[in-house]
Amino acid sequence: MLDTSSRVIFDEDHDAFRDTVRKVVAGLDTDRHEREGIVERGAWLTAGAAGLLCPGVPEAYGGPGLDFKWNAIVGEEVSYAGSAAGWSLQSDIVADYLIAYGSEEQKHRWLPGMVSGEVITAIAMTEPGAGSDLQGMKTIARRDGNGWRLSGAKTYITNGQSADLVIVCARTTEEGGARGISLFLVERSDEGFIRGRNLDKIGLHGNDTSELFFDEVKLPADRLLGQENGGFATLMNQLPQERLSIAVQCQAAAQRAFDLAVEFTKERKAFGKSVFEFQNTRFTLADLKARLQVGWAHIDWAIGRHVRGKLTPAEASAAKLWHSETQFQLCDAALQLHGGAGYMNEYAIARLWRDARVTRIYGGTSEIMKELIARTI
Question: What's this model's pTM, rounded to 2 decimal places?
Fold first, then answer.
Protein backbone atom coordinates (compact mmCIF):
# COMPACT_ATOMS: atom_id res chain seq x y z
CA MET A 1 0.00 0.00 0.00
CA LEU A 2 1.25 3.47 -0.90
CA ASP A 3 2.25 5.25 2.32
CA THR A 4 0.93 8.82 2.37
CA SER A 5 1.14 9.42 6.12
CA SER A 6 3.88 12.06 5.91
CA ARG A 7 2.33 14.10 3.10
CA VAL A 8 0.68 17.40 4.00
CA ILE A 9 -1.22 18.38 0.86
CA PHE A 10 -4.06 15.91 1.48
CA ASP A 11 -6.76 16.02 4.18
CA GLU A 12 -9.21 13.49 5.64
CA ASP A 13 -11.58 13.80 2.69
CA HIS A 14 -8.72 12.99 0.34
CA ASP A 15 -7.77 9.99 2.48
CA ALA A 16 -11.33 8.64 2.36
CA PHE A 17 -11.37 9.06 -1.42
CA ARG A 18 -8.02 7.29 -1.68
CA ASP A 19 -9.50 4.32 0.19
CA THR A 20 -12.29 4.15 -2.38
CA VAL A 21 -9.79 4.35 -5.24
CA ARG A 22 -7.75 1.52 -3.74
CA LYS A 23 -10.80 -0.73 -3.50
CA VAL A 24 -11.73 -0.11 -7.12
CA VAL A 25 -8.16 -0.56 -8.35
CA ALA A 26 -7.80 -3.77 -6.32
CA GLY A 27 -10.72 -5.15 -8.30
CA LEU A 28 -9.04 -4.59 -11.66
CA ASP A 29 -8.03 -7.74 -13.51
CA THR A 30 -4.65 -6.42 -14.59
CA ASP A 31 -3.48 -9.85 -15.76
CA ARG A 32 -6.44 -10.03 -18.11
CA HIS A 33 -5.72 -6.53 -19.37
CA GLU A 34 -2.11 -7.53 -20.04
CA ARG A 35 -3.25 -10.58 -22.03
CA GLU A 36 -6.00 -8.87 -24.00
CA GLY A 37 -4.33 -5.48 -24.49
CA ILE A 38 -7.38 -3.50 -23.43
CA VAL A 39 -9.38 -2.49 -20.35
CA GLU A 40 -12.96 -3.72 -20.60
CA ARG A 41 -15.80 -1.21 -20.55
CA GLY A 42 -17.13 -2.66 -17.33
CA ALA A 43 -14.02 -1.43 -15.51
CA TRP A 44 -14.60 2.09 -16.86
CA LEU A 45 -18.22 1.99 -15.65
CA THR A 46 -17.10 0.78 -12.22
CA ALA A 47 -14.57 3.60 -12.00
CA GLY A 48 -17.18 6.13 -13.04
CA ALA A 49 -19.74 4.90 -10.54
CA ALA A 50 -17.16 5.22 -7.75
CA GLY A 51 -16.26 8.80 -8.74
CA LEU A 52 -12.77 8.05 -10.06
CA LEU A 53 -13.22 9.62 -13.49
CA CYS A 54 -12.90 13.31 -14.31
CA PRO A 55 -13.01 14.82 -10.80
CA GLY A 56 -12.45 18.27 -12.26
CA VAL A 57 -15.65 18.35 -14.31
CA PRO A 58 -17.99 21.04 -12.88
CA GLU A 59 -21.27 20.05 -11.30
CA ALA A 60 -23.20 21.63 -14.19
CA TYR A 61 -21.88 18.85 -16.44
CA GLY A 62 -22.24 15.91 -14.08
CA GLY A 63 -18.96 16.07 -12.18
CA PRO A 64 -17.96 17.05 -8.65
CA GLY A 65 -15.93 20.13 -9.66
CA LEU A 66 -12.83 19.24 -7.64
CA ASP A 67 -9.22 20.33 -8.05
CA PHE A 68 -6.26 18.36 -9.42
CA LYS A 69 -5.39 16.80 -6.06
CA TRP A 70 -8.23 14.35 -6.60
CA ASN A 71 -6.95 13.46 -10.07
CA ALA A 72 -3.51 12.92 -8.59
CA ILE A 73 -4.85 10.41 -6.05
CA VAL A 74 -6.32 8.28 -8.84
CA GLY A 75 -3.15 8.52 -10.92
CA GLU A 76 -0.97 7.52 -7.98
CA GLU A 77 -3.04 4.53 -6.96
CA VAL A 78 -3.49 3.17 -10.49
CA SER A 79 0.25 3.46 -11.15
CA TYR A 80 1.26 2.03 -7.79
CA ALA A 81 -0.93 -0.99 -8.53
CA GLY A 82 0.88 -1.53 -11.83
CA SER A 83 -2.25 -1.01 -13.91
CA ALA A 84 -2.11 0.54 -17.37
CA ALA A 85 -5.76 1.70 -17.37
CA GLY A 86 -6.02 4.90 -19.40
CA TRP A 87 -8.19 6.75 -16.89
CA SER A 88 -5.75 9.60 -16.29
CA LEU A 89 -5.68 10.43 -19.98
CA GLN A 90 -9.44 10.91 -19.88
CA SER A 91 -9.54 12.72 -16.53
CA ASP A 92 -6.38 14.82 -16.64
CA ILE A 93 -6.13 15.64 -20.33
CA VAL A 94 -9.22 15.19 -22.50
CA ALA A 95 -11.72 16.44 -19.93
CA ASP A 96 -9.78 19.66 -19.42
CA TYR A 97 -9.76 20.41 -23.14
CA LEU A 98 -13.54 20.20 -23.18
CA ILE A 99 -13.92 22.18 -19.95
CA ALA A 100 -11.61 24.96 -21.13
CA TYR A 101 -12.51 25.17 -24.82
CA GLY A 102 -15.75 23.31 -25.44
CA SER A 103 -19.04 25.00 -26.28
CA GLU A 104 -21.93 24.57 -23.87
CA GLU A 105 -23.45 22.05 -26.26
CA GLN A 106 -20.20 20.07 -26.45
CA LYS A 107 -19.78 20.06 -22.67
CA HIS A 108 -23.33 18.91 -21.99
CA ARG A 109 -23.11 16.26 -24.68
CA TRP A 110 -19.85 14.61 -23.65
CA LEU A 111 -18.73 15.43 -20.12
CA PRO A 112 -21.48 13.59 -18.18
CA GLY A 113 -20.68 10.35 -19.99
CA MET A 114 -16.97 10.81 -19.41
CA VAL A 115 -17.64 11.17 -15.68
CA SER A 116 -19.82 8.05 -15.59
CA GLY A 117 -17.48 5.95 -17.73
CA GLU A 118 -20.07 5.49 -20.44
CA VAL A 119 -17.92 7.56 -22.81
CA ILE A 120 -14.26 6.69 -23.34
CA THR A 121 -12.03 9.30 -24.93
CA ALA A 122 -8.64 9.76 -26.57
CA ILE A 123 -6.58 12.60 -28.00
CA ALA A 124 -4.77 12.17 -31.32
CA MET A 125 -1.70 14.33 -31.80
CA THR A 126 1.15 12.05 -32.90
CA GLU A 127 1.48 11.03 -36.55
CA PRO A 128 3.79 8.56 -38.33
CA GLY A 129 6.00 11.51 -39.30
CA ALA A 130 5.33 13.94 -36.44
CA GLY A 131 5.85 13.16 -32.77
CA SER A 132 7.22 15.71 -30.32
CA ASP A 133 7.31 18.27 -33.16
CA LEU A 134 3.59 18.87 -33.49
CA GLN A 135 4.21 21.62 -36.02
CA GLY A 136 5.09 18.89 -38.53
CA MET A 137 1.66 17.26 -38.58
CA LYS A 138 0.10 16.48 -41.96
CA THR A 139 -3.48 15.57 -41.03
CA ILE A 140 -5.67 18.25 -42.60
CA ALA A 141 -9.24 19.48 -42.27
CA ARG A 142 -10.58 21.34 -45.30
CA ARG A 143 -13.69 23.47 -45.41
CA ASP A 144 -16.75 21.66 -46.78
CA GLY A 145 -19.74 23.98 -46.79
CA ASN A 146 -20.36 24.94 -43.17
CA GLY A 147 -18.32 21.95 -41.97
CA TRP A 148 -15.06 20.15 -42.63
CA ARG A 149 -13.49 17.16 -44.36
CA LEU A 150 -10.81 15.51 -42.23
CA SER A 151 -8.07 13.38 -43.78
CA GLY A 152 -4.88 11.92 -42.37
CA ALA A 153 -3.42 9.36 -39.98
CA LYS A 154 -2.45 9.28 -36.32
CA THR A 155 -0.48 6.71 -34.37
CA TYR A 156 0.43 5.65 -30.81
CA ILE A 157 -3.00 6.80 -29.60
CA THR A 158 -3.83 5.65 -26.07
CA ASN A 159 -7.43 4.39 -25.71
CA GLY A 160 -7.54 4.36 -29.51
CA GLN A 161 -9.47 1.09 -29.82
CA SER A 162 -11.88 1.92 -27.00
CA ALA A 163 -12.59 5.58 -27.65
CA ASP A 164 -16.08 6.83 -28.39
CA LEU A 165 -14.76 10.36 -28.85
CA VAL A 166 -11.33 11.47 -30.09
CA ILE A 167 -9.90 14.98 -30.06
CA VAL A 168 -7.98 15.15 -33.33
CA CYS A 169 -5.32 17.76 -34.12
CA ALA A 170 -5.32 18.81 -37.76
CA ARG A 171 -4.15 21.55 -40.07
CA THR A 172 -6.81 24.00 -41.25
CA THR A 173 -4.49 26.01 -43.50
CA GLU A 174 -1.73 25.02 -45.87
CA GLU A 175 0.77 27.01 -43.83
CA GLY A 176 3.48 25.11 -42.00
CA GLY A 177 4.66 25.63 -38.46
CA ALA A 178 2.41 26.48 -35.56
CA ARG A 179 -0.15 28.42 -37.55
CA GLY A 180 -3.30 26.87 -38.87
CA ILE A 181 -3.72 23.98 -36.41
CA SER A 182 -7.21 23.28 -35.08
CA LEU A 183 -8.84 20.67 -32.86
CA PHE A 184 -11.82 18.55 -33.86
CA LEU A 185 -14.15 16.13 -32.11
CA VAL A 186 -14.48 12.83 -34.00
CA GLU A 187 -17.08 10.30 -32.93
CA ARG A 188 -16.88 6.53 -33.10
CA SER A 189 -19.65 6.30 -35.71
CA ASP A 190 -18.30 8.93 -38.13
CA GLU A 191 -18.04 7.54 -41.65
CA GLY A 192 -14.44 7.35 -42.81
CA PHE A 193 -13.03 7.07 -39.27
CA ILE A 194 -11.06 3.81 -39.27
CA ARG A 195 -9.16 2.19 -36.42
CA GLY A 196 -6.01 0.34 -37.30
CA ARG A 197 -4.10 -2.16 -35.20
CA ASN A 198 -3.99 -2.35 -31.47
CA LEU A 199 -0.24 -1.80 -31.48
CA ASP A 200 2.21 -4.34 -30.08
CA LYS A 201 4.23 -2.41 -27.50
CA ILE A 202 7.26 -3.18 -25.33
CA GLY A 203 5.25 -2.35 -22.23
CA LEU A 204 1.89 -0.96 -21.15
CA HIS A 205 0.30 -4.09 -22.55
CA GLY A 206 -2.73 -3.46 -20.37
CA ASN A 207 -4.14 -0.62 -22.43
CA ASP A 208 -4.98 -0.19 -26.09
CA THR A 209 -2.70 1.98 -28.21
CA SER A 210 -3.76 2.34 -31.82
CA GLU A 211 -3.34 3.68 -35.29
CA LEU A 212 -6.23 5.89 -36.40
CA PHE A 213 -7.11 6.80 -39.98
CA PHE A 214 -9.38 9.54 -41.28
CA ASP A 215 -10.59 9.10 -44.85
CA GLU A 216 -12.46 12.26 -45.81
CA VAL A 217 -14.41 12.22 -42.55
CA LYS A 218 -17.25 14.70 -42.85
CA LEU A 219 -17.57 16.85 -39.73
CA PRO A 220 -20.29 19.43 -39.07
CA ALA A 221 -19.29 22.90 -37.89
CA ASP A 222 -20.02 22.09 -34.26
CA ARG A 223 -17.19 19.54 -34.14
CA LEU A 224 -14.56 22.27 -34.02
CA LEU A 225 -13.17 22.47 -30.47
CA GLY A 226 -12.07 25.97 -29.57
CA GLN A 227 -10.99 28.54 -32.11
CA GLU A 228 -10.22 27.79 -35.75
CA ASN A 229 -6.45 27.98 -36.27
CA GLY A 230 -5.98 28.36 -32.52
CA GLY A 231 -5.13 24.74 -31.80
CA PHE A 232 -1.42 25.10 -31.24
CA ALA A 233 -1.88 27.67 -28.48
CA THR A 234 -4.58 25.45 -26.98
CA LEU A 235 -2.21 22.47 -26.94
CA MET A 236 0.55 24.50 -25.32
CA ASN A 237 -1.83 25.79 -22.64
CA GLN A 238 -2.91 22.28 -21.67
CA LEU A 239 0.48 20.57 -21.71
CA PRO A 240 1.54 21.54 -18.15
CA GLN A 241 -1.23 19.46 -16.55
CA GLU A 242 -0.53 16.55 -18.90
CA ARG A 243 3.15 16.57 -17.94
CA LEU A 244 2.38 16.90 -14.25
CA SER A 245 -0.03 13.98 -14.54
CA ILE A 246 2.75 11.85 -16.04
CA ALA A 247 5.16 12.95 -13.30
CA VAL A 248 2.65 11.92 -10.60
CA GLN A 249 2.26 8.48 -12.13
CA CYS A 250 6.03 8.07 -12.49
CA GLN A 251 6.62 8.85 -8.83
CA ALA A 252 4.03 6.33 -7.63
CA ALA A 253 5.37 3.60 -9.90
CA ALA A 254 8.91 4.29 -8.66
CA GLN A 255 7.71 3.92 -5.08
CA ARG A 256 6.10 0.57 -5.91
CA ALA A 257 9.35 -0.66 -7.50
CA PHE A 258 11.25 0.29 -4.35
CA ASP A 259 8.72 -1.38 -2.06
CA LEU A 260 8.92 -4.58 -4.11
CA ALA A 261 12.72 -4.55 -3.94
CA VAL A 262 12.71 -4.15 -0.16
CA GLU A 263 10.22 -6.99 0.24
CA PHE A 264 12.12 -9.31 -2.10
CA THR A 265 15.60 -8.68 -0.68
CA LYS A 266 14.43 -9.24 2.88
CA GLU A 267 12.87 -12.60 1.94
CA ARG A 268 15.47 -13.89 -0.51
CA LYS A 269 18.42 -15.80 0.97
CA ALA A 270 21.96 -15.93 -0.46
CA PHE A 271 25.13 -17.27 1.15
CA GLY A 272 23.28 -18.00 4.37
CA LYS A 273 21.66 -14.61 4.92
CA SER A 274 19.04 -12.37 3.37
CA VAL A 275 20.06 -10.35 0.32
CA PHE A 276 19.05 -7.26 2.30
CA GLU A 277 21.86 -7.85 4.78
CA PHE A 278 24.58 -7.28 2.18
CA GLN A 279 26.05 -3.79 2.30
CA ASN A 280 25.62 -3.29 -1.45
CA THR A 281 21.91 -3.97 -1.15
CA ARG A 282 21.44 -1.67 1.81
CA PHE A 283 23.42 1.14 0.19
CA THR A 284 21.49 0.78 -3.07
CA LEU A 285 18.17 0.87 -1.26
CA ALA A 286 19.29 3.81 0.86
CA ASP A 287 20.11 5.78 -2.29
CA LEU A 288 16.74 4.90 -3.81
CA LYS A 289 14.90 5.89 -0.66
CA ALA A 290 16.64 9.27 -0.63
CA ARG A 291 15.60 9.85 -4.26
CA LEU A 292 12.02 8.95 -3.40
CA GLN A 293 12.00 11.35 -0.45
CA VAL A 294 13.08 14.16 -2.74
CA GLY A 295 10.59 13.02 -5.37
CA TRP A 296 7.58 13.08 -3.08
CA ALA A 297 8.48 16.51 -1.73
CA HIS A 298 8.80 17.82 -5.27
CA ILE A 299 5.62 16.20 -6.60
CA ASP A 300 3.58 17.65 -3.74
CA TRP A 301 5.14 21.07 -4.38
CA ALA A 302 4.22 20.82 -8.07
CA ILE A 303 0.65 19.66 -7.35
CA GLY A 304 0.22 22.53 -4.89
CA ARG A 305 1.48 25.09 -7.40
CA HIS A 306 -0.76 23.69 -10.12
CA VAL A 307 -3.86 23.81 -7.91
CA ARG A 308 -3.07 27.47 -7.19
CA GLY A 309 -2.63 28.16 -10.90
CA LYS A 310 1.09 28.88 -10.51
CA LEU A 311 2.82 25.92 -12.18
CA THR A 312 4.67 27.17 -15.24
CA PRO A 313 5.21 25.19 -18.45
CA ALA A 314 8.95 25.00 -17.68
CA GLU A 315 8.28 23.72 -14.15
CA ALA A 316 5.89 21.08 -15.51
CA SER A 317 8.49 20.06 -18.07
CA ALA A 318 11.11 19.78 -15.33
CA ALA A 319 8.76 17.63 -13.26
CA LYS A 320 8.06 15.34 -16.18
CA LEU A 321 11.77 15.10 -16.99
CA TRP A 322 12.97 14.40 -13.45
CA HIS A 323 10.26 11.98 -12.39
CA SER A 324 10.28 9.95 -15.60
CA GLU A 325 14.07 9.61 -15.57
CA THR A 326 14.02 8.78 -11.85
CA GLN A 327 11.26 6.22 -12.34
CA PHE A 328 13.34 4.24 -14.78
CA GLN A 329 16.44 4.44 -12.56
CA LEU A 330 14.40 3.13 -9.63
CA CYS A 331 12.72 0.38 -11.63
CA ASP A 332 16.00 -0.75 -13.17
CA ALA A 333 17.78 -0.85 -9.80
CA ALA A 334 14.85 -2.67 -8.23
CA LEU A 335 14.85 -5.26 -11.00
CA GLN A 336 18.60 -5.77 -10.53
CA LEU A 337 18.05 -6.46 -6.83
CA HIS A 338 15.58 -9.18 -7.82
CA GLY A 339 18.33 -10.97 -9.76
CA GLY A 340 17.06 -13.49 -12.30
CA ALA A 341 13.60 -13.37 -10.76
CA GLY A 342 13.28 -9.79 -11.92
CA TYR A 343 13.44 -10.91 -15.53
CA MET A 344 10.46 -13.21 -15.04
CA ASN A 345 7.04 -11.87 -15.94
CA GLU A 346 5.48 -13.56 -12.92
CA TYR A 347 7.14 -10.91 -10.75
CA ALA A 348 5.49 -7.49 -10.67
CA ILE A 349 8.82 -5.69 -11.05
CA ALA A 350 9.13 -6.98 -14.61
CA ARG A 351 5.92 -5.23 -15.65
CA LEU A 352 6.88 -2.03 -13.83
CA TRP A 353 10.27 -2.00 -15.57
CA ARG A 354 8.77 -2.52 -19.03
CA ASP A 355 6.07 0.07 -18.49
CA ALA A 356 8.56 2.65 -17.21
CA ARG A 357 10.45 2.89 -20.48
CA VAL A 358 7.82 4.90 -22.35
CA THR A 359 7.40 7.67 -19.79
CA ARG A 360 10.60 9.31 -21.06
CA ILE A 361 9.02 9.42 -24.51
CA TYR A 362 5.29 10.18 -24.38
CA GLY A 363 4.02 13.60 -23.34
CA GLY A 364 7.22 14.99 -24.87
CA THR A 365 10.58 13.22 -24.81
CA SER A 366 13.20 13.94 -22.17
CA GLU A 367 15.21 15.75 -24.83
CA ILE A 368 12.27 18.03 -25.63
CA MET A 369 11.75 18.69 -21.91
CA LYS A 370 15.38 19.80 -21.62
CA GLU A 371 14.98 22.09 -24.61
CA LEU A 372 11.84 23.70 -23.11
CA ILE A 373 13.54 24.18 -19.75
CA ALA A 374 16.69 25.60 -21.38
CA ARG A 375 14.66 28.27 -23.17
CA THR A 376 13.79 29.81 -19.80
CA ILE A 377 17.37 30.03 -18.54
Answer: 0.95
